[in-house]
Automatic annotation (TrEMBL):
Residues 24-329 form the DUS-like FMN-binding domain. This is tRNA-dihydrouridine synthase. InterPro entries: Aldolase_TIM, DUS-like_FMN-bd, DUS_fam, DusB-like, tRNA-dHydroUridine_Synthase_C, tRNA_hU_synthase_CS. The keyword Flavoprotein applies. SUPFAM superfamilies: FMN-linked oxidoreductases. Its EC number is 1.3.1.-. Belongs to the dus family. It comes from Bombiscardovia apis.
């Protein structure tokens, strides 16, 4: 393979230096501290964001929300993502995080396309309402700036092709003092289907002075190089591509350092990572092995993707109830099976289009929220009880 000429300069987020701006994209149910620790070991100079935490759940001191805010001592930057619709609740949650010294960086979720979120005006639906978006950012950034904690915003292209929001949202984020913007280059309507439109990332890079992190469809180190080359983005954010492949962060760091060296573990080596991941998850679940092993099911499916492992063995993994069961299955795997290079860099995880975008009634009629809309939005949110 030819040596790459594409490089990434360090990115500065307030007081935090990110020497290699390769970022683990927040993923609910995936990017808890055990997975982040594994990823960071392969790329110590990147940034690893926790999964989204609902502001209202934090304010209500929901113990499950607090569990998502835990970090391992080894984590270099404690990077938390908050989700919320009500600017006042977001401000309160931010104050808790800041005053409790709970994080070093706060990312805000304006990208979630899930119907139960967008029908409440949250996630990727929110930037459509310019007043709400601006107020929310303003309140969060004001609280954070007193503690010198950088805030970043993660956005999508818009709601659909006729209702794009990313350029305005990027400008507002910049004006309100965000340290960077991450753009997942799909609309809500596109959900996770097709390929993200990297041209949109390039467009946002042209518009903004703050760093733009490009996100969407990086499945290999080569994809990361291509995104930076095509768009000029300051950094890349990796979601589904690292599911079952925490070593992708080393591949990408190598690629930006001009090296063609890639991590290609045998199945035996992957088994050791699976075992360690399960042990760490057991700690995450306060010693509850069964919860950890059940949570590992999706990870195991990703880790084994492409390896010559039959349906019976895969099912046996899904039936494990303890770490011992899991280790027993791992020991039975053909340890020398080589890394399935051909399948490794292919799409994994969610790849579907949305059936229909769900929004609050009349959401698209105006770019500003009405009094009645706000009243309806800021009532009890079923999302808050979803942990
Ligand atoms: C299982 C899953 C959970 C996700 N959870 C979050 C989340 O909590 N917060 C967020 O901003 N994005 C979330 N995302 C979106 C990803 O961070 C990322 O933007 C998206 O997957 C596109 O990047 P990719 O093509 O590299 O996967 C999630 C995606 C997946 C697949």
């Amino acid at each position: 393979m030819a040596q790459s000429q594409v490089t990434l300069a360090p990115v500065q987020l307030g007081p935090i230096a990110v020497p290699t701006p390769v970022v683990l994209s927040p993923m609910a149910g995936v990017t808890n501290w055990p997975f982040r620790v594994l990823c960071e070991e392969y790329g110590p100079d990147g940034l690893y964001v926790a999964e989204m935490v609902t502001a209202r759940a934090l304010v209500a001191k929901n113990p499950k929300a607090f569990r998502l805010c835990r970090f391992a001592p080894s984590e270099r930057v404690r990077s938390l993502q908050l989700y919320g619709v009500d600017p006042i609740i977001m401000e309160k949650a931010t104050r808790m995080v800041v005053e409790g010294g709970m994080a070093d960086h706060i990312d805000l979720n304006f990208g979630c396309p899930v119907p139960k979120v967008t029908r409440r005006g949250g996630g990727s639906a929110l930037p459509w309402k310019l007043d709400l978006f601006k107020e929310l950012l303003n309140r969060v950034v004001s609280v954070c700036s007193s503690a010198n904690i950088p805030v970043t915003a993660k956005i999508r292209v818009g709601i659909d092709a006729d209702h794009t929001t990313f350029l305005e949202a990027g400008h507002i984020a910049q004006e309100e003092g965000c340290a960077a913007v991450a753009l997942h280059a799909r609309t809500t309507a596109e959900y996770y289907g097709g390929h993200s439109d990297w041209d949109r990332i390039g467009q946002l890079v042209e518009e903004l002075d703050i760093p733009v992190l490009g996100n969407g469809d990086i499945w290999s180190a080569e994809d990361a190089l291509a995104m930076v080359e095509q768009t000029g983005c300051a950094g890349v954010e990796i979601g589904r591509g690292c599911q079952g492949r925490p070593w992708l962060f080393r591949d990408i760091a190598n690629a930006f350092a001009g090296s063609s060296k890639r991590v290609e573990p045998t199945l035996g080596q992957v088994g050791q990572i699976v075992s360690r991941h399960a042990q760490l998850l057991t700690e995450f679940y306060d010693g509850d092995e069964q919860m950890a092993v059940h949570d590992m099911r999706k990870h195991v499916a990703w880790y084994l993707k492409g390896f010559p492992v039959g349906g019976g063995t895969r099912r046996a993994f899904m039936e494990c109830e303890s770490l011992a069961d899991l280790d027993q299955q791992i020991a039975l795997l053909p340890q020398d099976a080589p890394y399935p290079e051909s399948i490794a860099a292919k799409p994994r995880g969610r790849v579907r289009y949305a059936k229909k975008v769900k929004l609050p009634q009349g959401w698209l009629d105006s770019r500003e929220t009405t009094h009645d809309e706000r009243e309806a939005l800021f009532g009890d949110d079923p999302m808050d009880a979803s942990y």
